[in-house]
Amino acid sequence: MSERKDFLRTIVADDLKAGKYDEVVTRFPPEPNGFPHIGHAKSIAINFGIARDYDGHCNLRMDDTNPTTEDTKYVEALKEAVEWLGFDWGDTVYFTSDYFPKIYDYAIQLIKMGKAYVDSLDEEEIREYRGTVTQAGKRSKYAERSVEENLDLFERMKKGEFKEGEHVLRAKIDMAAANMKMRDPLMYRIRHAHHFRTGNEWAVYPMYDFAHCLSDYIEGVSHSICTLEFENNRDVYNWVLDTLELEPPRPYQHEFARLGINYTVMSKRKLLELVQSGVVDGWDDPRLPTIAGYKRKGYTPESILTFCEQIGIAKANSMVDVSQLEFCIRDDLNTKVPRVMCVINPLKVTITNYEGSEALDASYYPDDVPKEGSRKLPFSKEIYIDREDFTEAPSKGYFRLTPEQPVRLKHAYIIECQEVIKDADGKITEIKAHYHATSKSGADTSGIKVKSAIQWVDAATAKEVEVRLYDRLFSCEAPEGVEDINPDSLKVIKSALIEPAVITDKPDERFQFEREGYFYADPVDYSDEKPVFNKIVGLKDSWGKKSKARKVTPKPQAKKVQVDGEVAPMSEAEQALFEKYQNELGLNSEVANTLARDEQLSSFYEAALSIHSTPVTLANMVSNEVARELKEKSASALKFTAEQVAELVKMIDDSTISNKIAKQVFEEMVKSGDNPAKIVEAKGLVQISDPSKIAPIIDDIIEKNPDNVAKFKAGNTKLLGFFVGQVLKATGGKANPQVVNALVAEKLQ
RNA sequence: UGGGGUAUCGCCAAGCGGUAAGGCACCAGUUUUUGGUACUGGCAUUCGGGGGUUCGAAUCCCUCUACCCCAUCCA
Question: What is the distance between the alpha carbons of residues A79 and A85, in angstroms, rounded to a whole number?
Answer without folding.
Answer: 10
